[in-house]
Amino acid sequence: MYLNKAIIYGNLTRDPELKAIPSGSKVATFSVATNRIWKDKAGARQEAVDYHNVVVFGRQAETVSQYLKKGSGAMIEGRLQTRSWDGTDGQKKYRTEIVADRIQFGPRSGGVGAMPSTAKSGANAEEGPASSDNPPVPTEAIEYPEEEINPDDIPF
């Protein structure tokens, strides 16, 4: 059995670009950044960022281009695919991308039913609506415990 499955959650690094292919079907392309944080042997905090190219087809491409913008969070499920072509300099070029089967939008800033900032008016234009259902998303990274985990302590 073979398996080609990619699942990532990250933030868009640019607005999706929507195009139509000759058959008339829509295709959207964008990239997503994922962060990884760890502590090295000296105990210093390290951070790395990976960038992933994503391609979406059909109705989902239209929805993605309508609702997702640079900085939006999204979970992408799909398969990895590498394309190749001859560049203008005559060299072979390669691009590995995730062809998305499913995309889930991350939490929206401002909460449910928040009005765009251009539509707000009055004395409270600076303040968004308060919602107890949608607490603010912390921007701090996850802090992992210092102690080592013993596999024998895991109950399953």
Q: How would you describe what is shown here?
A:
The structure is a single chain. This protein is mainly β and 156 residues long. The protein has a single domain, classed as OB fold (Dihydrolipoamide Acetyltransferase, E2P), CATH 2.40.50. The chain contains 1 helix and 6 strands, in the order E-E-E-E-H-E-E. It has a 5-stranded mixed barrel with strand order 1-3-4-6-5. A hairpin with a 5-residue loop joins strand 5 and strand 6 (92-105). The longest helix is centred in the middle third of the chain and has 9 residues, at 59-67.
Task: Based on the model shown, name its key terms.
single chain, 156 residues, mainly beta, OB fold (Dihydrolipoamide Acetyltransferase, E2P), five-stranded mixed beta barrel, 6% helix
In short:
This protein is mainly β and 156 residues long. Helices cover 6% and strands 42% of the residues. It has a single domain, classed as OB fold (Dihydrolipoamide Acetyltransferase, E2P), CATH 2.40.50.
